[in-house]
Amino acid sequence: MDWQALSLSIKLSFVTLLFLLPIGVFLGRWLAYRQFWGKSLLQTLLALPLVLPPTVLGYYLLVVFSPQDGLGLWLLNTFGTSLIFNFQGLVLASIIFNLPFAIHPMQRAFAGIPREVREAASCCGMKPALVLWRIELPLAWPGIISAMVMCFAHTLGEFGIVLMIGGNIPNETQTIAISIYDRVQSFDNQAAAIMSFSLLLFSMLTISFTYWLSARSEQIYD
Amino acid sequence: MTDTAIHIRLEQTTPIPLSVNLECKAGELLALVGPSGSGKTTVLRAIAGLYQAQNATIICQGEVWQESEHKLFLACYQRHVGLVFQNYALFPHMTVLENVCQAVTHLPKQQRQTYALELLKKVHLEGLEKRYPKKLSGGQQQRVAVARALARQPKVLLLDEPFSAVDQVTRRKLYRELLELRQSLAIPMILVTHDLDESTLLADRIALLHKGEVLQTGSPELVAAHPISATVARLMDQQNLFSAQVVSHDPAKQKTLLRWRDMQIEAAYQPQFPINEPVCWMIQSANILLHRRDRVSNGDKENPLHGEIVEYMESRGLAHIRVQIDQQRETSLAIHVPLHVAKRNSLSLHEKISISLLSEGIHLMTYQALHRSS
Questions:
Q1: Domain B6-229 is found in CATH 3.40.50.300
Q2: Is a pLDDT exceeding 90 seen at residue B365?
Q3: Average pLDDT for residues A203-212, to the nearest whole number?
Q4: Where are the domains of chain B?
Q5: How large a percentage of chain B has pLDDT more than 70?
Q6: B311 by DSSP, 3-state: which?
């Protein structure tokens, strides 16, 4: 078992969640309640990582953040940093490819709260922030938790995009999925089997958990 | 003296046309009545601050809630409104007590629970404080919604079809409770309903809405008996609505003579309608007298008509009869008589009967083409 790679993957997953939680709540709620020009286009863009091969997404990120020119060059000149082949780059890539996994379930969860329930909260004298805190978040939390669990599992197992933008630098960008690939390449089948089985077990647990949460969420409105 | 009423003026043409000018006094129950899509709920939402009409003035108990001219608009949470939603909109993740407590945050902390419990007692929900909404019956849920609306100590109580989601037996019980409750409320109350019987039973005044416009306001009895137009009469479910021509006015007898098809009908004196001009006229079933078959009475001489029963239905102690006067569907009159009267007079389908139209009950309106749906 490559503990270094596993701990890096877990760290990457947690840091990604830290960013995705507020982004998902904000965008999910916004898309659930607001109608605006270009909403369909925005939703299409946000859903792209669902269908785009991770290597393609990784390639574009590599192009965009390449320190040779454009945005990458600007980042280098302004902040003296690059987002290629380092942990920060992996976090950014993970946030982008997890966007639909975070936003869609949260959007559905917020959309599932009847409009009258939110309005009733306003009639009770609650300001919008309080309506979010006392009414919307408690009612949407199964969707939010399920989104977070899915993102965590997804980040833990992501391969293509991580390899493209992070490369394969041990203790810096080598995640568990890349480590498995490495072990197979070097005929260390036993290590690959243990790590693969751990990921399989974890994936099964997360999916069971999300199903349980969605069943619980349905019960609320029975 | 402070103004305790609510004044509502809403004007807009798009996206939903609205032309509303209403006032509801403290302690008064005003019913907004009208068919589906007439804009009743939109008016209620505008009062609550959940909908912003383009050109509006809403002043409640002297407090300006909206004044479009000065771009003033108080959000819903800034207005003290109690709103009972059609499906109650209870917070499903909170108990009954927690639901009510959400609306008492304007009170000091130590008083909140006591006040919420008091309200739950008032709406007969003692012992159910720890239940979740999904474990309550429809009637109980409605009572929680009413308690929560009152918990805010509102300046106006808004009720959006609050009885539509319960069965008839529960509804009757809730009607009694609302009538009892309103005795203790010194705030304006506005009820949205499409049920005319409900508005007649509960409201002091009704405002009839059609396509976003208030067509008439007044006591339910007044609007039903004296609609200002055939449209109002039809919306008030007036079944005996016809067109005729004014023949003459007799100030001495205080009568107006009408020609209805080939018959002469005497109506109450209404000289504002010019002679020889077409008019619409209506009569409520209560002003149609059924002639007893065994003996003649004085009332029988007033606009006597003879016809055949073409429809006969019995329901809840009443016989609903349609009498066709001269073989024409257009001249059939709807009458509702107590079942015992129908039995005593052996009324049944295809029986020939005689009726009298009480002239005082014949109400004239400006002519407009009548389209019959059946």
A1: yes
A2: yes
A3: 82
A4: 6-229, 241-366
A5: 96
A6: strand
Within 8 A of B149 by CB-CB distance, chain A residues are 123
Taking residues B120-143, report their average pLDDT.
Answer: 92
What pLDDT digit, counting tens, does each position of B276-315 carry?
999 999 999 999 998 877 666 666 678 999 899 999 999 9
ipTM: 0.86
- Calpha distance B342→B368 (Å, rounded): 34
Vertex A29, ends A26 and A31: CA angle to 5°?
A: 105
Judge: A119–B50 Cβ closer than 8 Å, yes or no: yes
Q: Nearest chain A Cα to B94, which residue?
A: A135
Averaged pLDDT for residues B38-64? 95
Among all chains, which residue has been given the structure tokens 């947690």? A14
Question: Does residue A121 sit at the B interface (CB-CB below 8 Å)?
Answer: yes
B278 to each of B251, B275, B326, how far by Cα in Å?
20, 8, 20
Interface touch A138/B102, C-beta < 8 Å:
no
CA distance B153 to B116: 11
Domain ranges for chain A: 3-220
Which residues make Cβ contacts (< 8 Å) with residue A33, sequence separation at least 6? A110, A111
**Cβ count within 10 A of residue A116:** 18
pLDDT at B256 over 70: yes
Contact B93/A124, CB-based, under 8 Å?
A: no
Chosen from B52, B93, B95, B112 to mutate, greatest number of chain A CBs within 10 A: B93
What secondary structure does DSSP assign to B204-237, as a single string?
SEEEEEETTEEEEEE-HHHHHHS-SSHHHHHHTT
A window 138-167, beta carbon within 8 A of B:
138-139
B134 contacts chain A (CB < 8 A): yes
List the structure tokens of B196. 């005319």
Could you tell me which of B126, B162, B123 has the C-alpha nearest to residue B143? B123
Tell me the pLDDT tens digit for each residue of A85-137.
778 888 988 999 899 999 999 999 999 999 999 999 999 999 999 999 999 99
Q: Which residue of A has its CA nearest to B101?
A: A124
- Tell me, yes or no, if A119 comes closer than 8 A to chain B by beta carbon: yes
A125 with B152: Cβ contact below 8 A: yes
In residues, how long is chain A? 222
Nearest to B152 among A117, A124, A221 (CB): A124
Answer for the pair B23, B8: CB distance below 8 angstroms, yes or no. Answer: yes
List Cβ neighbours of B180 (8 Å cut-off, separation of 6 or more).
none
Looking at domain A3-220, its CATH superfamily turns out to be MetI-like (1.10.3720.10)
> What is the mean pLDDT of the segment spanning A8-30?
92
User: Under CATH, what is the fold of the domain B241-366?
Assistant: OB fold (Dihydrolipoamide Acetyltransferase, E2P) (2.40.50)
What percent of chain A has a predicted confidence (pLDDT) above 70? 96
Query: Ramachandran region of residue B61, left (φ > 0), alpha (ψ -120 to 50) or beta?
Result: left
pTM of the model: 0.86
